[in-house]
Write a structure and sequence with these properties.
- Helix 1 packs across helix 2, helix 2 runs parallel beside helix 3 and helix 6 packs across helix 7.
- The protein is globular.
- It has one domain: Luciferase-like domain (TIM Barrel).
- An 8-stranded parallel beta barrel has the order 1-2-3-4-5-6-7-8, surrounded by 6 helices.
- It has 285 residues and is of the alpha/beta class.
- Helix 3 links the parallel strand 3 and strand 4.
- Pfam families: Bac_luciferase.
Length: 285
């Protein structure tokens, strides 16, 4: 199973200079990928910009959006931006996509919250065509050459199953360990994949939040999670309760998702200190 680590781009007031150093060190320590989390109305760093900085600081490590809220952005612009990042980075990008449920992000960008699922479908259709270097608007292609970007869909609805089976490469599970339900939905993903006549098998990606250290570090991490997920207090507390706090937790989580047949696991830091990366690498690599 591939082990990745999140960039701390989603941590409030994170310093931009941390991102490149974080990505460089993650590659040195042997992580398979670095990942960003997307949000607009929050004092965080832009998801794609953070991955672009990570790409420039590294050579081989994978780059993952986990997940990008595609309906917030104009489809043609997003297609070109992501194709550019994938090309410049040497085709290391994997695109996790979702719709989110924060109305403030949609209000701020002028996007349609109530029809965000339909917008996602249209956006994905345009992006896949654009990445084949097809003409999708006007009379010339958006992209100078074809580019391959694997697409994972987040969520747990019938629409997620349809998207994975018909347009995607796999599923991105949420960042709370719910082994029974995640295992069950993974089986549904595999079944939908087979029913669609797809070759091979879907990629299954899981993710968790973590912070290792003393009581003050854990308390700060909990505060960050409560702030980030505060739009739904109950969900915020679920993330707080589920956050990994010891290396032993990390090892057992890797084992659990491996046993469930997942292909990748992303550890998202809940504080933006580089020692978190070092502690995690010592535990799971």
């Amino acid at each position: 199973m591939q082990i990745g680590i999140g960039l701390p781009n989603h941590v409030a007031a994170v310093r931009g200079s941390v991102i490149s150093e974080w990505a460089h060190r993650a590659e040195q320590r042997g992580f398979d990928s670095v990942a960003s989390i997307d949000r607009v109305v929050y004092p965080s760093l832009d998801s794609i910009v953070a991955l672009s900085a990570a790409a420039g600081a590294t050579r081989d490590i994978g780059l993952v959006t986990n997940v990008l809220l595609a309906p917030l952005y104009p489809a043609a612009w997003l297609a070109k931006q992501l194709a550019s990042l994938a090309d410049i980075a040497g085709n290391r990008l994997t695109l996790g996509l979702g719709v989110g449920r924060r109305t403030d992000d949609y209000t701020a960008t002028g996007a349609d919250f109530h029809h965000r699922g339909r917008v996602l479908d249209r956006t994905v259709e345009l992006m896949l065509r654009a990445w084949r270097a097809d003409v999708v608007t006007g009379d010339v292609p958006l992209c100078p050459a074809a580019v391959r970007i694997p697409v994972l869909f987040g969520g747990g609805s019938p629409a997620t199953l349809r998207r994975v089976a018909t347009a995607g490469d796999g599923w991105a599970a949420g960042a709370v360990r719910d082994y029974a339900n995640q295992s069950s939905f993974a089986d549904e993903v595999r079944g939908a994949w087979r029913d669609a006549g797809r070759a091979g098998r879907p990629w299954l990606n899981a993710s968790v939040n973590f912070a290792f250290g003393d009581a003050a570090t854990v308390e700060a991490a909990h505060a960050n999670l409560r702030s980030y997920y505060g739009f739904v207090p109950e969900y915020a507390e679920l993330n707080v309760a589920d956050m990994l706090t010891t290396p032993q937790d990390a090892v057992s989580t890797v084992r659990a998702y491996r046993d469930l047949g997942f292909d990748g696991l992303l550890f998202h830091p809940s504080v933006a200190s580089l020692d978190q990366l070092e502690r995690l690498a010592d535990a799971v690599l």
